Amino acid sequence: MKFSEFEFDPRLQEGIEASNYVEATPIQEQVIPLILQGKDLIASAQTGTGKTAAFLLPLVHKILTLKTDPDAITSLVIVPTRELAIQIQNHLEGLSYFTSISSIAVYGGNDGSAFLQEKKALSSVQIWLFVPQA
Prior knowledge:
By secondary structure, the chain is mainly alpha-helical. The protein is 45% helix and 9% strand. It has a 3-stranded parallel β-sheet, sandwiched between helices. It starts with 9 loop residues before the first helix and ends with a strand. The mean pLDDT is 86.
């Protein structure tokens, strides 16, 4: 299945194409339609099969197409490690490049300058990627 068949918002589709995504992986093909329908699910697949895009693409599409306050936090993604938060943040930045969506990865252990940047961004981002302290 091609990504164009999902009929994502054109701004998101532009990010998909810029990321050189053409064909959906099996996990993406199975879960994206369910997430777009608002269904809850748990999915499992091997590393490198496209799980991150499988949940980010419908999330970004919904943010772009639903009527929400543009300054409101619309999503919170909780992940177990700082590295995964950074990886997802980078992936999200690429996919949402042609949109007005903003996001931030929030985790401890940074220096003071990073904290000031996070503090400023927290009041204006729409998607938070959060790593809880163990």
